[in-house]
Design a protein that fits this description.
The complex is a heterotrimer of chains A (328), B (265) and C (355). Chain B is mostly helical. Helices cover 77% and strands 0% of the residues of chain B. In chain B, α3 (54-88) packs antiparallel against α9 (169-198). In chain C, the strands form 4 sheets. In chain C, strands 6-7-8-3-9-10 form a 6-stranded mixed sheet, sandwiched between helices. In chain C, strands 13-12-11-14-19 form a 5-stranded antiparallel sheet. In chain C, β4 and β5 form a beta hairpin. The relative contact order of chain C is 0.11. Mean pLDDT of chain C is 90; it is low at 351-355. The chains are: A mainly alpha (328), B mainly alpha (265), C alpha+beta (355).
Chain lengths: 328, 265, 355
């Protein structure tokens, strides 16, 4: 694909009368292509190129062509003498948190979106304002809110203790179960740090996105279709199972995969709520590039792994969607 | 069923609002720690954020400059790209639009790292203008989408009608297309503005500690814990979001922008 | 006083031929209706005249001027679109002024023209209204006023009544025709409604499959349809097949006086008779009688449709209800008289298909 393709542009110019262009196809298009390629593509290319570079002691790095960074990622820097799966472990937690949080968000956002699209246009508009406002809210503020709610000094643990729920848990034996899950210290229930808090916050973070992504498909669902099913004797649940779900299966899968890719890059929720041993790849990218460890090529290699994970996921989603599309 | 629906939506809204409310309330804390319910309620944190503490005041100014600058730039780049797709419908123009939307679709931390490298080479690292450009590229996908939706909604018969009344293609663009595209362009601008206002990961990598926006300032002080002054920032940002999106809903067709079927009311 | 003429105009979309080899003359000051079923190429032909499409071959002339290579904005033929295509971001007056505004006509003068045109279409009080606040009929008037503001040499209307309620249509047809006659402007109207074409047009061009089937004044086309397609499309028609023998049509065991001798013996023919030409009166002329059984009766105001089953096939007869009218009931046996003067005889389609 060449950046500029004057002959084809020129021929498409004359094909339709009502669509005569006001843009000069040549120079302007070339500039636009150059701009987009530079700003949108070059950064990703740089990440890939630098991932093959070398670290130089004293926080600098040089271009190169070595697979050392990838080797370090998969089996550790001192392989084959010793093997460590530290970074594969991080990748595992990236995927683990993202999958569960995405599934939870879609499961809860789906009924919400369904109910919302059955409302009047004006009511939908108000809900959308609400959702967009929370969607755009910075991750730092959201983490701030859950941090207060889940912290041991105030918020939920305090509420549980004051209301006597903690004592009740201790009596019934559930408290020991929670301790096993890492969600209680000897005195009270605790959420910081825990997988529960991490996944809860991540799920919260993408929940408005889930609604916004499901909204087009559900709002375009013809009401007469569900009404037809009702007249044939289907109850609300049967309608949902036999009419609604099958017809929005593809957008549902698509939403799940997009949320997953988004969650791979989440940083603040993980640093605040996840246990030190259960941090994600996004966190170690940050640490390698600008944080404590300062090894830009290794950070870039991890970023590439993150990109590839996201890419594979989107590709799998595409295959799934295509295959279902054929059999449907 | 109706009761269940309303109950479920109310519960969802409650869970969504809960952490936001808690943040807002903790801005009233008299002490330095974030407690809920707030201790020694006071409004001095607001004065600190907006007036007394230069760190926050500068950050707010930077946030505003970057948000407005990048949103305007994003609209300027997105316009010809979206117009090209609508006009030509060629594979090349669709590819261009796809590339333009790519940074928004991939994990921002990866794009941030890449931009950090790129500005490092070109000497833009740590300058506020590189921050403006970075956010413009990151959020270009939003005006790209809203403008594309708007262009699709233009009735081809309007263009034919203008031509039969003597309008050249350039005149048609100026008198028919542009005026009808104003709400869509503004929606795209405001979407980009609000998201830029709240973004910090990409900004972290391209600012290289040369300057800070409000959310970046909070991000940078993460290790030392949250303070009530940050909660004031949260309140400010929430208000801006609500006002902007209410305006978009008031002057544009928000359900349509979000992908609802335009024909159904 | 220039006539608009089309010479062998053809339009292909890829391999699909939308309009093929059309030769037509639109006389100055007359209203011509392009009539045909949907997909017959009539709208494409109108768009070719407007300059919104380029013809694949052929020439479009206005008097001595060749317009074929001129773009729509150079021809400036006023056009009313199917859904009127009023600009939603402009109010009524601004819509009407559009052509003048972009041509750089001073505002005062443009407003004067707009006021005159809004008066012409009886919308004077509506100048400042938004387009969304208008009814369908009002929108149509605005669209007409807007297309006329530039004083076009040719006035084009694409299905102008299709977006209106049925009862509003007839009134607007009369009104539009009166306006056109007052202005004396060459006008082309595309329609699929034969009543509309008959009401408004000086000339009707019947089209099907991108070809012109017949051109002529409305009454000529109605009473002398050139082929079975036109007979079927303009007004209602009953069809049957037969063979010519000595000036008579033989169909099964029946033999009917044809009223023409121009067909050779043995040639297969398609015969058309209009429902109002067939006779069911108690006292009917001798000859050309066909036995029939009433299968359905339908009252349509002043007349009654009698559906018959005959040896020639099913047939509908229009029977006037008046003093001493006969009563018909389902199952009743009767005879129907087909006057020789009311029969349109064409070479059979089947024969044409074989040849």
């Amino acid at each position: 694909m060449s950046a500029v393709d004057p002959p084809t542009l020129a021929s498409s110019e004359t094909s339709g009368r009502s669509r005569r262009s006001i843009m000069r196809p040549d120079l302007f298009q070339a500039v636009l292509w150059a701009l987009i390629l530079t700003l949108c593509v070059v950064p990703f290319v740089l990440v890939i190129v630098i991932s093959f570079g070398q670290k130089i002691e004293g926080a600098a790095w040089a271009f190169g062509f070595t697979g050392a960074n990838y080797q370090r990622f998969f089996v550790g820097a001192s392989w084959p003498e010793s093997t460590t799966f530290l970074y594969l472990n991080r990748l595992w937690y990236s995927v683990y948190y993202a999958v569960i949080a995405a599934v939870l968000a879609v499961l809860t956002a789906f009924p919400f979106t369904w109910f919302m699209t059955r409302m009047s246009r004006a009511a939908q508009s108000r809900w959308l304002v609400f959702l967009l406002a929370t969607l755009s809210l910075s991750e730092v503020f959201i983490v701030m809110g859950w941090d207060i709610l889940l912290s041991n000094r105030s918020g939920l643990p305090m509420v549980l203790r004051e209301t006597g729920v903690t004592d009740w848990l201790k009596v019934t034996g559930w408290f020991d179960v929670l301790r096993e899950w890492g969600m209680a210290n000897p005195r009270n229930v605790k959420f910081k740090t825990s997988e529960f808090a991490t996944i809860l916050t991540m799920s919260y973070l993408v929940w408005p996105y889930a609604v916004i992504l499901l909204y087009p498909a559900l709002s375009r669902l013809d009401p007469s279709m569900t009404e037809a099913a009702r007249t044939m004797g289907a109850g609300p649940w049967t309608v949902m199972r036999t009419v609604v779900l099958p017809s929005v299966r593809l957008p549902l899968i698509g939403t799940l995969f997009l949320l997953f890719v988004f969650l791979l890059g989440v940083y603040v929720s993980v640093t605040v709520f996840a246990e030190p041993a259960k941090q994600t790849l996004a966190v170690s990218v940050y640490e390698a590039v600008r944080g404590s460890t300062l090894n830009a090529p290794f950070g870039a290699a991890q970023a590439v792994i993150l990109l590839i994970t996201g890419g594979i996921c989107l590709w799998l989603g595409q295959i799934l969607v295509n295959r279902k599309g054929v059999t449907a | 069923m109706k009761i269940f629906a309303h109950g479920f939506m109310a519960l969802a809204a409650f869970v969504i609002v809960l952490p936001i409310l808690v943040v807002c309330a903790s801005a009233l804390n008299g002490g330095r720690s974030m407690l809920f319910p707030p201790q020694d309620p006071t409004l001095t944190r607001f004065a600190e954020f907006f007036l007394h503490e230069p760190v926050w005041r500068n950050a707010l100014v930077n946030s505003v400059i970057i948000a407005f600058g990048s949103a305007a730039l994003a609209v300027l780049i997105a316009w010809p790209v979206a117009y090209g797709v609508w006009k030509r419908r060629s594979a090349a123009s669709k590819l261009l639009a796809g590339l333009g939307a790519m940074p928004f679709a991939l994990p921002p931390i990866v794009f941030g790292v890449g931009l950090g490298f790129m500005w490092g080479f070109s000497g833009g690292l740590g300058n506020i203008w590189s921050g403006v450009i970075s956010h413009a590229v990151l959020f270009m996908a939003l005006p790209l989408v809203t403008i594309s939706i708007g262009l699709q909604s233009i009735d081809e018969a309007h263009l034919d009608a203008a031509a039969t009344m003597g309008a050249t293609p350039a005149t048609t663009f100026r008198t028919i297309i542009l005026p009808q595209m104003v709400p869509y362009t503004l929606s795209g601008f405001f979407f980009a503005l609000v998201l830029s206002f709240n973004e910090f990961i990409v900004m972290f990598f391209v600012s290289a500690s040369g300057y800070a926006t409000v959310t970046l300032q909070i991000f940078n002080s993460l290790r030392n814990g949250f303070t009530p002054t940050m909660a004031v920032a949260a309140i400010t940002f929430i208000l801006v979001s609500v006002i902007v999106f209410s305006a978009v809903a008031r002057f544009g067709d928000l359900p349509r922008l979000m992908g609802a079927d335009p024909s159904r009311k | 006083m220039d006539n608009l003429t089309l010479h062998k105009v053809r339009k292909d979309y890829g391999k699909v031929r939308a309009v093929e080899g059309v030769d037509l003359t639109f006389n100055h000051g007359e209203l011509t209706a392009l009539l045909g079923p949907s997909g017959c190429g009539k709208t494409t032909l109108l768009r070719l005249i407007a300059g919104l499409e380029d013809p694949t071959a052929g020439k479009i002339m206005l008097g001595p001027r060749d317009l074929t290579r001129q773009a729509a904005h150079q021809r400036k033929f006023g056009m009313v679109f199917q859904n009127f295509a009023l600009f939603p971001h402009l109010n009524v007056r601004e819509n009407v002024c559009y052509a003048l505004t972009i041509a750089g006509v001073p505002k005062a003068q443009a407003h004067e023209t707009a006021a005159r045109l809004l008066d012409l279409v009886q919308l004077t009080p509506f100048g400042d209204r938004a387009i969304g606040a208008l009814s369908g009929g009002q929108r149509q008037r605005v669209a007409i006023a807007r297309a006329l503001a530039q004083e076009p040499e040719v006035f084009l209307l694409d299905e102008p009544m299709s977006a209106l309620d049925a009862n509003l249509r007839e009134a607007m047809q009369v009104e539009l025709r009166m306006l056109q006659q007052r202005l004396g402007i060459t006008t082309v109207v595309v329609t699929h409604d034969q009543r509309e074409a008959m009401t408004m047009a000086d000339n009707i061009v019947v089209m099907s499959d991108g070809r012109v089937e017949q051109t002529g004044a409305p009454q000529d086309i109605y009473h002398k349809p050139g082929n079975p397609f036109v007979a079927n499309f303009i007004g209602r028609a009953n069809f049957f097949e037969g063979v010519m023998r000595g000036g008579r049509i033989t169909a099964g065991s029946l033999s009917l006086e044809a009223g023409t001798r121009k067909y050779l013996d043995g040639s297969p023919v398609t015969v058309v008779i209009r429902p109002e030409k067939a006779c069911l009166d108690e006292v009917m002329p001798e000859g050309n009688r066909v036995p029939a059984e009433v299968i359905f009766v339908r009252d349509v105001g002043p007349t009654r449709d009698i559906h018959l089953d005959t040896p020639l096939g099913p047939m509908v007869v229009e029977y006037a209800i008046g003093e001493g009218a006969r009563a018909f009931t389902r199952g009743q046996k009767t005879e129907v008289h087909l006057p020789a003067g009311g029969l349109y005889i064409y070479p059979s389609d089947k024969a044409r298909a074989v040849a």
